[in-house]
């Protein structure tokens, strides 16, 4: 009897140790990729603005190129996520992303920067669904929420420091953020490669499927809130697309805000989103409740609308903080309700990432065109109207879910 209990304890300890090792590798690489990506996002805006004198609409389409290839790749590569070993996909992805950024920093042909940015989107589409699907495999409920909270904390922490770093590096040289971002991504590739070499069981996780088709159908009630969650994710990332692509140009040229301060303002959004992720990971009262989605979106719409009346960096910082908190709620809702009860989690994560990127495309491209031909006030008003329309769509799609936890 004692031998049996001892064996069970040893088995649990071994499983827990392997889960901790897996989580550490995934979240460590996620932090580095998010850090490099954040440097690239703001740094590339300053890069093409200064090197190629790109207009706001060109900057918007530049970011939309990356998002388009990312969306298509997420959707087309879904069969790959459940067949290939996650560590291999993540190593290939991070190495290729680093190489693309290094190439982008070396060229002086504007058309080629669009091609390189598109290739970057393809490489990035291999990384995120693989990492998220692998991390969430085999867990549900509150434990899933906690694991997703650690994941969200990892990538959002990377985005906290990256805008400020990108702003500072851009003041030294327009191409320096791309070169530094490349080095960070190469470091992520080395980390995953080294972990796979020294932790053998990581190489054995060839699939990230969990459960059975019957279990998926049985838990379908738990996942129907993914649809309103995806609506909120789309409208939220329209706002993020504007903040990443259009707002830096507006703040730099019309408000007279320096690059470093612009980076700091975007850093505040990332910091508040991280705080939100930590708070949401510590509770499950929001699980399967649609009301909190609508409330978060309403707060975001108000913050965006109020930005149109603000010219003070302090006031902008306060409003961006609210956007950061609303973003954490929207993102976590989509992430949690997409994978809860799902069999093909990496494929669900690919859809999550595709919806997110579609919002970035709309925000960066449409926002850039509206700003160039009208004003930033028009951008904010249209964006707030879109969020309110999204709230109505969320309310319709989640009807029947109010007042009960599925």
In short:
By secondary structure, the chain is mostly helical. It has helices at residues 2-51, 56-76, 78-81, 86-106, 110-136, 141-172, 176-198, 213-218, 220-223, 226-245, 247-253, 259-281, 291-307, 313-339, 345-373, 376-397. Helix 10 packs parallel to helix 13 (291-307) and helix 12 packs parallel to helix 14.
Tally of separate domains: 1
The helix tally amounts to 16
Query: How does the major sheet shape up?
Result: none
What is the helix fraction of residues, given as a range? Answer: over 70%
Structural class: mainly alpha
The arrangement of helices and strands along the chain is HHHHHHHHHHHHHHHH
How large is the radius of gyration? 21 Å
Strand content is: under 5%
Distance between the termini: 40 Å
User: Can you tell me the residue ranges where pLDDT is under 50 for at least 5 consecutive residues?
Assistant: 206-221
Arithmetic mean pLDDT: 86
Shape: globular
Q: What is the second-level CATH architecture?
A: Up-down Bundle
CATH superfamily: MFS general substrate transporter like domains
CATH top level assignment: Mainly Alpha
Description:
- This protein is mainly α and about 400 residues long.
- It has one domain: MFS general substrate transporter like domains (Growth Hormone, Chain: A, Up-down Bundle).
- The protein is built from 16 helices and no strands.
């Amino acid at each position: 009897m004692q031998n049996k209990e001892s064996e069970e304890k040893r088995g649990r300890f071994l499983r827990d140790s392997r889960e901790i090792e897996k989580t550490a590798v995934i979240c460590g690489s996620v932090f580095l990729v998010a850090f490099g990506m954040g440097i690239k996002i703001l740094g590339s805006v300053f890069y093409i603005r200064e090197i190629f004198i790109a207009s706001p609409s060109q900057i918007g389409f530049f970011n939309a190129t990356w998002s388009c290839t990312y969306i298509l790749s997420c959707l087309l590569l879904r069969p790959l996520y459940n067949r290939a070993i996650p560590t291999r996909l993540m190593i290939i992805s991070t190495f290729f992303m680093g190489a693309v950024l290094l190439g982008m920093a070396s060229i002086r042909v504007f058309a080629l920067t669009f091609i390189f940015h598109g290739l970057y989107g393809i490489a990035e589409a291999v990384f995120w669904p693989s990492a998220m699907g692998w991390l969430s495999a085999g867990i549900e409920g509150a434990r899933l929420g906690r694991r997703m909270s650690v994941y969200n904390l990892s990538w959002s922490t990377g985005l906290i420091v990256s805008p400020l770093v990108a702003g500072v590096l851009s003041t030294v040289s327009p191409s320096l953020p791309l070169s530094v971002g490349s080095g960070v991504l190469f470091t992520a590739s080395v980390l995953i490669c080294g972990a796979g070499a020294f932790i053998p069981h990581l190489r054995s996780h060839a699939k990230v499927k969990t459960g059975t088709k019957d279990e998926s159908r049985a838990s379908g009630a738990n996942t129907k809130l993914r649809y309103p969650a995806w609506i909120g994710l789309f409208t939220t990332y329209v706002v993020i697309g504007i903040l990443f692509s259009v707002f830096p140009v507006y703040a730099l040229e019309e408000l007279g805000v320096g690059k470093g301060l612009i980076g700091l303002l975007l850093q505040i959004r990332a910091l508040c989103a991280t705080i939100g992720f930590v708070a949401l990971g510590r509770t499950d009262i929001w699980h399967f409740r649609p009301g909190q989605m609508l409330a978060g979106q309403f707060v975001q719409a108000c913050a965006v609308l109020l930005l149109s009346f603000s010219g003070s960096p302090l006031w902008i910082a306060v409003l961006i903080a609210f956007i950061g908190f609303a973003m954490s709620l929207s993102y976590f809702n989509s992430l949690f309700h997409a994978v809860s009860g799902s069999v093909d989690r990496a494929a669900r994560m690919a859809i999550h990432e595709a919806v997110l990127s579609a919002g970035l495309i709309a925000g960066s491209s449409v926002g850039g065109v509206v700003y160039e031909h009208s004003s930033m006030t028009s951008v904010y008003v249209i964006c707030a109207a879109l969020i309110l329309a999204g709230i109505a769509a969320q309310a319709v799609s989640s009807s029947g879910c109010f007042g009960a936890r599925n």
